Amino acid sequence: MQSPNQSERSVGDAPDANPKKPEKLTEKQLRWVEEYPKHFNASRAARDAGYSAESAADMGYQNKQNPALMALVDERHKALTMSADEATRHLSDMAATRLNDFLVVREVQGYEMREEYVTVLRTHAQNKLKRLQEAAKKLPKKNNPFDASIAELHIEIVGYDIEIERFGDDVARLVPGRPIVAQVTEFDLVALAKAKDVGRIKKFKHTKEGVEVETYAADNAARDILKLNGRYEKHNQQKKAEVTITIGGRTISSQPAVSDET
Known about the structure:
alpha+beta; Arc Repressor Mutant, subunit A; 3 domains; three-stranded mixed β-sheet; 45% helix; disordered N terminus; disordered C terminus
């Protein structure tokens, strides 16, 4: 009768006197595990992990034959990839993203624009100039605070004279009138930053003209969804082939990627 503490062996089995100890992985092997799932090129991963160019091909092949390393590779690959369902949701968000999603409306004070004859504007400027000159006479000539304003008015009046001489007395300009409250639209920078972090938009940046936003093409996102679900016409005959898409630095894979390349 066999003791409960005895291992079950067949009659011909001999006891394992030297059980295999867990293999201690080197730093280069661990780095190879990090690199290999990025492209599934064993030789390239070996070079990136620090193996010499001469030994990269051999070491890449050996590492692929190591069950412990490949188990870590599988875990690493799962951590880096999205499921097809998650990818579909993400791509759907990308396809549905519009610039209007990031616009906010706020009220600002503005002015109602009105038309005014340039001859009238010149008269107003001349009257203002006379008042400033009278006020300036009451102050010391050195460092007079009105000097800059008086110089600007002289330049403004010369501009009016040139315009009247060129276009006649009937020439007019649009000038600010009574104050009004106006609505303006602008980008919500916080919302843009969050959308960039989750991969809904490609990028945004500040320019001289304002904020520039680059979104993903909706038709490309829709096509990628069809590819993931095997419904894109070009891929109907290749449903078992892997579809790999990168979003925001993360890889989406409909099937585990396996490469024979070393």
